């Protein structure tokens, strides 16, 4: 298995874990805040992961920086979480947007040659190659899946989902 295939497998596994950790919950449960004054919620994390995928795979790698950040209002990064309210339409939009950004990323990645991980995308703060972007995305998913574990357990006691 190539390094690119390994990274894509991990990304697919992390995305599947998001689906498991949010399964069978209603809008109120998905929007429930962790611990006041935190605005962290499962729904907020799904919105954030949609923004994350869109930013790194679309805006950075596909070079569309002019596109608006998803779920970020007037440059306020907290709006990803503040806007995660217990409304079925908000839940539907968040999951549809996240799934679409994942599908768009996968479609682009399908055409990426194995050796492309070394392609330099420009000098940046630790992000200089396609490999660096993948590592950034994977570490973000891993971190937020830990948050999701705790949030899910506080909602219905389920662990290890």
Automatic annotation (TrEMBL):
<dbReference type="Pfam" id="PF04978">
    <property type="entry name" value="MST"/>
</dbReference>
<dbReference type="InterPro" id="IPR007061">
    <property type="entry name" value="MST-like"/>
</dbReference>
<dbReference type="InterPro" id="IPR034660">
    <property type="entry name" value="DinB/YfiT-like"/>
</dbReference>
<protein>
    <submittedName>
        <fullName>DinB family protein</fullName>
    </submittedName>
</protein>
